[in-house]
Design brief:
This protein is α/β, with parallel strands linked by helices. It has 18 helices and 20 strands. 32% of the residues lie in helices and 19% in strands. A five-stranded parallel β-sheet has the order 3-2-4-1-5, with helices on both faces. Strands 6-7-10-8-9 form a five-stranded mixed β-sheet, with helices on both faces. The chain has a five-stranded parallel β-sheet with strand order 12-11-18-19-20, sandwiched between helices. The N and C termini lie far apart (73 Å).
C-alpha cells in the first residue's frame, strides 16, 4: 500500500477586472508554474497564455447572469487536485476576497489541511469607476467608500443589508452584481433617506474595450440603465464622485476606442502589436495565421563573406542562434558589412550586439539590393567579386538575390527558418467576420489567411480573405499589398513606412477619418 502524496499548494488568484495589463506579476508567475488552473470566464482574455503547455485548464464557468458551475463543485475540484499532489490555481476576476468567494474556498482548503496562498487582484469596484473617470474617494465629495453586494445569497430569508446605514453613509457606494436589481437598490436607498438627486453611474465591462457607462441620479439611474441595455458584468456607483465622470473621462477618448482590430501575425510577435493596439483603446482579436519554425541550419564559412544581409527580425534571431549553435560568436563577423532590410530587423540585431551598417530607406528586398549594390563600384579594385550571404526564410522572394546578382555580386543563401500555417479555429474565423480592421504585416500572413478561409470564388474588394464586407484591410507596405492583390484583395490602408510603427500610425489616421 502506497502512501498518499503530500497535498499540492492551492493558489486563490485575483486576475483583475479584465484589462490584461492590470494583472499582477505574482498572478502571472503562479499561473506559469502550476499543474492545474481552474478559471472563470471573467478573467482577461490573455490571462492563461503563460500557462505551462502540459497544464490542465478547467473552465468553471462563473459569469454574472450566465451559466454557472456550482460553487460546491468548484471547491471539490480544488480539493481533489490538491490532495492528488498537484499545484492548482483558482483564477477568478477581480480580487478573490472581494465578493469572489475566496474566503469560503480558503476555509475549505484549511479544513482539509491543504496549504494555500492568496494572490490579491485589482477589484472591479475601484478599477471600473477609475476607467470611467470616477474616483471612488475625493476630498470634496467622498471621505470613504463602501463596497456592497447587489446580489445576496438567495437562501437568506431576508436581506441583511443595512439600507438606513448606507443611506446615511457620507461617502461613495459601489454595488457589485446588482444590474438586475437596480430598481430595488435605488428604491431601498431613497426610501431610507439617500437623496434621489444624488449623482449615480453604472459601468459595464469596466476596463475592457467594450466598456459602457451611463450616468444619472439615484432616482433615474435604473431607468437610464434599462433603456441603454446595460448588462452584467457591471458596477453601480452612487455619490457625488459620479458627477465627475464628464470632467475626468479618459478611457473612451483614446484613438481606437470602439474599434475592433484583428492581428494576423505569428503568435510570438502578435503580443507586442496587440498590446500597443490595446493601449490605444482597440478591441484586439488575435488570429495568428502563421508561425515560424527553425530549420536548425548550419552557417557556411564566413571568412569570405563581405556582406551579410538579414531580411526579417526572425532571421536576425535565428542568425545569432545559428552562430552560437556552431560554437562561433559575433567575433566571426568582424569586418563583415551587416545589412538589414528595415529598422525592425536592425533593432533585433542591436539587441544581440550587432550594428546594421546598411538599412534602406524603403524596406524592401529591391531597396536593400540597390543599397548593397552601391559597393559594386569598388569591386573592380578587389581581387575577387563581392560576396553576399543572405540569412533569411525558406521560400523567400527573389528580388534581393536577383538584384545583387545583377550588380555583379556573388550570392549565397542560408534558409534559417520557415513560415508555416497556424490553423484557425472556427470561432476565430467567425470573429473575423465582425472586426472593423484586419492587419497584415507580411505577405505570408495574407496568403495563409486566404487559405484558411477556403473561399474559392472570391468576390468584392476582399477577394479570398474570410472577413466581413465592412472590414477595412490594413497592409504594412507594398510587398504585402502585392501579396494581397494576388488573392484578389485591395487594402483600404497602406502604411507610409513599412514598419509596425507605420502600420499603427496609418490605422489610427484612418480611424480618425
Amino acid at each position: 500500500m502506497t502512501d498518499a502524496p503530500a497535498p499540492g499548494t492551492a493558489y486563490l488568484i485575483g486576475a483583475g477586472p479584465g484589462d490584461p495589463g492590470l494583472m499582477t506579476a505574482r498572478a502571472l508567475e503562479v499561473i506559469a508554474s502550476v499543474d492545474v488552473v481552474l478559471y472563470d470566464q471573467l478573467i482577461p482574455p490573455t490571462a492563461l497564455d503563460g500557462a505551462r503547455p502540459d497544464a490542465e485548464l478547467v473552465d468553471v464557468g462563473k459569469r454574472g447572469g450566465g451559466k454557472q458551475v456550482p460553487q460546491a463543485q468548484t471547491e471539490a475540484l480544488l480539493v481533489e487536485h490538491a490532495l492528488a499532489g498537484r499545484s492548482v490555481a483558482r483564477v477568478k476576476g477581480g480580487d478573490p476576497f472581494v465578493f469572489g468567494r475566496g474566503g469560503e474556498e480558503a476555509q475549505r482548503l484549511r479544513a482539509r489541511g491543504i496549504p494555500y496562498e492568496i494572490v490579491p487582484g485589482v477589484t472591479a469596484g475601484i478599477a471600473g469607476p477609475a476607467y470611467a473617470g470616477i474616483p471612488v474617494t475625493h476630498r470634496e465629495h467622498a471621505p470613504g467608500v463602501a463596497f456592497v453586494t447587489g446580489h445576496e445569497d438567495p437562501s437568506k430569508p431576508e436581506s441583511t443589508i443595512d439600507w438606513e446605514g448606507l443611506a446615511r453613509f457620507p461617502g461613495t457606494l459601489v454595488f457589485y452584481m446588482g444590474v438586475r436589481r437596480l430598481p430595488q437598490i435605488a428604491a431601498s436607498l431613497t426610501a431610507a433617506g439617500r437623496p434621489a438627486d444624488q449623482p449615480a453611474a453604472v459601468v459595464q465591462s469596466g476596463t475592457l474595450p467594450g466598456q459602457r457607462v451611463v450616468t444619472g441620479t439615484l432616482g433615474t439611474i435604473a431607468e437610464v440603465a434599462a433603456q441603454a441595455g446595460i448588462q452584467a458584468p457591471a458596477v453601480t456607483v452612487v455619490g457625488g464622485v459620479a458627477g465627475l465622470r464628464d470632467e475626468l473621462r479618459w478611457f473612451e477618448d483614446r484613438p481606437l476606442f470602439g474599434r475592433s482590430v484583428a492581428v494576423t501575425r505569428a503568435r510570438a510577435q502578435a503580443s507586442g502589436l496587440a498590446r500597443r493596439l490595446r493601449a490605444l483603446g482597440a478591441d484586439v482579436v488575435e488570429t495568428p495565421t502563421i508561425r515560424t519554425r527553425s530549420l536548425g541550419a548550419e552557417l557556411p564559412d564566413l571568412a569570405d563573406v563581405d556582406v551579410l544581409a538579414i531580411t526579417s527580425p526572425n532571421g536576425a534571431r535565428e542568425l545569432v542562434a545559428a552562430l552560437l549553435r556552431s560554437g562561433r560568436d559575433l567575433r566571426d563577423l568582424y569586418g563583415t558589412t551587416i545589412a538589414a532590410v528595415g529598422p525592425g530587423t536592425a533593432r533585433v540585431l542591436r539587441e544581440h550586439g550587432l550594428h546594421a551598417d546598411l538599412v534602406p530607406e524603403t524596406y524592401t528586398g529591391e531597396a536593400l539590393a540597390a543599397l548593397i549594390g552601391r559597393d559594386r563600384a569598388d569591386a573592380s579594385r578587389r581581387e575577387r567579386p563581392l560576396r553576399a550571404l543572405l540569412a533569411r526564410a525558406a521560400a523567400a522572394g527573389d528580388a534581393l538575390p536577383d538584384g545583387l546578382r545583377a550588380a555583379g555580386i556573388a550570392v549565397d543563401e542560408v534558409a534559417l527558418y520557415e513560415t508555416v500555417a497556424e490553423p484557425l479555429a472556427d470561432d476565430a474565423l467567425e470573429a473575423l467576420q465582425h472586426v472593423d480592421y484586419v492587419t497584415f504585416t507580411s505577405a505570408s500572413t495574407a496568403g495563409f489567411l486566404a487559405d484558411a478561409g477556403g473561399i474559392a470564388d472570391p468576390a468584392g474588394p476582399h477577394g479570398r480573405l474570410p472577413v466581413g464586407p465592412g472590414t477595412r484591410v490594413v497592409s504594412i507596405g507594398p510587398v504585402t499589398t502585392a501579396a494581397l492583390a494576388e488573392i484578389g484583395a485591395t487594402p483600404a490602408v497602406e502604411a507610409d513606412e513599412a514598419t509596425i510603427d507605420g502600420l499603427i500610425a496609418a490605422l489610427v489616421a484612418d480611424a480618425a477619418r
